């Protein structure tokens, strides 16, 4: 496996700058709220694929799989002596109810979905990495669930063969 944390953080900074400098200012026109989130997400996906994934692999097209995550990017929390506080919820809900959980084992296989922020109406920080749990020895009941992990407190890894 290869550590791509620096590449992911460069992408994260670029994505934040793009939203905060350009798209955030488009969202209001007088008193009318205009939602450019879909347009931004389309550009954001291309940005990740071109600045991280395609540079690493040299292939022409890398997209999320049918599970809505990047199989090629594994996200590993930095477990401290007390574990790692995260949030989790079942996937594909229109209004997600996040629940706090303390991760204590390193046997969880999380895959990157994208960065997450609580609001798009204000400055976006992309504080969390939204990930999907695809296998686990300690939390098998949560396989298939989405988790929010603090973006700065994880390592992003890839295997060349996955790309």
- Largest sheet, described in full? 8 strands, antiparallel
Share of helix, binned: 25-40%
Low-confidence stretches: none
- Kindly provide the radius of gyration, computed on alpha-carbon positions and rounded to a whole number of angstroms: 16 Å
The succession of helices and strands, N to C, reads EHEEHEEEEEEE
Total strands: the figure is 10
**Shape summary:** globular
User: How far is it from the N-terminal to the C-terminal residue, by CA?
Assistant: 11 Å
Structural class: alpha+beta
Strand order of the largest sheet: 1-10-4-7-8-9-5-6
Task: Tell me what portion of residues adopts beta-strand conformation.
Answer: 25-35%
* Mean pLDDT over the full residue set: 83
Number of helices: 2
Short structural description:
This protein is an alpha+beta fold and 163 residues long.
Keywords for this entry:
alpha+beta, two-stranded antiparallel sheet, 163 residues, 2 helices, eight-stranded antiparallel sheet
Protein model, in words:
- The protein has 163 residues and is of the alpha+beta class.
- Helices cover 26% and strands 30% of the residues.
- The protein has helices spanning 5-26, 37-57; strands at 2-3, 28-29, 32-33, 74-77, 84-89, 99-103, 108-116, 128-136, 146-150, 154-158.
- An eight-stranded antiparallel sheet has the order 1-10-4-7-8-9-5-6, covered by helices on one side.
- Helix 1 (5-26) runs antiparallel to helix 2.
- The termini are close together.
- The mean pLDDT is 83.
């Amino acid at each position: 496996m290869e550590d791509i944390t620096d590449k992911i953080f460069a992408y994260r900074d670029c994505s934040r700058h793009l939203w905060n400098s350009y798209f955030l200012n488009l969202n209001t026109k007088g008193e009318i709220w205009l939602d450019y989130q879909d347009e931004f997400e389309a550009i954001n996906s291309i940005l990740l694929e071109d600045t991280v994934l395609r540079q690493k692999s040299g292939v022409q097209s890398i997209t999320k799989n049918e599970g809505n995550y990047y199989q090629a990017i594994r996200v590993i929390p930095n477990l401290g002596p007390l574990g790692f506080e995260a949030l989790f919820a079942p996937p594909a809900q229109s209004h997600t109810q996040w629940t706090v959980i303390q991760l204590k084992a390193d046997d969880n296989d999380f895959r990157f979905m994208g960065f997450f922020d609580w609001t798009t109406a204000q400055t976006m920080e992309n504080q969390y990495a939204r990930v999907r749990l695809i296998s686990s020895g300690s939390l098998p009941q949560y396989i298939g669930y989405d988790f929010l992990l603090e973006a700065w407190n994880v390592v992003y890894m890839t295997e060349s063969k996955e790309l």
